[in-house]
Write a structure and sequence with these properties.
It is a single chain. The protein is about 50% helix and about 20% strand. It is built from 8 helices and 8 strands. Strand 1 (about 1-5), helix 1 (about 15-30) and strand 2 (about 35-40) form a beta-alpha-beta unit. The two termini are about 20 Å apart.
Length: about 240
């Protein structure tokens, strides 16, 4: 069965290439055809991508079970099935041990010794979603033996977006931004573009890692395998 990754989509010029690279890497691990689809802001959408294959496993490239995972993904799958597609929908990426391990490898390879970690995520209006991201940040920092903050790109109140990064740099002389992003995005660019100014204003040394990208290929492959196994069990039970 074909692997279809389902990303949110972005207007960022590098986002599609990053998703396609991740999709190709996961497909290579699985030894199956692979293609990318998007919920919005990029093409193809899921019904279009699924129309071109006989059967597929869809892996949503989403970290939290917020609005997109709970509403947009089921709606896209429903539209694809109404067009005749035969799909099994896998669990999203989530915020479990696999993502923790991937972020831990990023920290180990990129962050200067002793740098305070800032896990930078989009943010969600769903109760509990941001708390789950905060718990992930704590686990990654504990694993690395570092202090840490979690800053969300969107939301209300102090400590959000560039203001949150500025506050972290005010408190810590060395800082490293760790994006909880699959691919480049405009929200992340806003943060990265602000870092030199923040560093100069606060007298801090500030570094940053790239989005996770193809580092997530083993996780995508694992979600595919689990969904395929569940699909076969359902068929046998029927």
């Amino acid at each position: 069965m074909t692997l279809i990754t389902l990303a949110h989509g972005s207007r960022h010029p590098a986002a599609v290439r990053a998703i396609e690279d991740l999709t190709a890497a996961a497909g290579a691990l699985l030894g199956v055809p692979a293609r990318a689809a998007y919920l919005e802001l990029a093409t193809p959408d899921l019904p279009t991508a699924a129309r071109e294959v006989p059967r597929a496993v869809v892996v949503p490239l989403l970290f939290t079970r917020a609005y997109h995972a709970r509403h947009d993904v089921p709606a896209a799958a429903r539209a694809a099935r109404e067009s005749g597609a035969r799909l099994a929908v896998a669990e999203p990426l989530g915020l479990g041990p696999e993502v923790e391990e991937a972020l831990g490898r990023v920290v180990a390879s990129d962050a200067e010794p002793g740098a305070h970690l800032v896990l930078y995520a989009v943010g969600s209006s769903r109760p509990g979603a941001n708390a789950e991201v905060a718990a992930l940040g704590a686990r990654v920092a504990r694993r690395a033996g570092r202090t840490h903050s979690v800053v969300f790109a969107t939301g209300k109140g102090r400590g959000v977006g560039v203001a949150g990064l500025d506050e972290a740099a005010r408190r810590h002389r060395r800082l490293h931004l760790v994006p909880l992003f699959v691919a480049p995005g405009l929200l992340l660019d806003t943060a990265l573009d602000a870092l030199p100014t923040i560093a100069a204003r606060r007298g801090a040394a500030v570094g940053a890692s790239a989005p996770l990208g193809a580092r997530l290929a083993p996780l995508v492959a694992g979600r595919y395998r689990a969904a395929l196994a569940g699909h076969h069990q359902e068929k046998r039970a029927a």
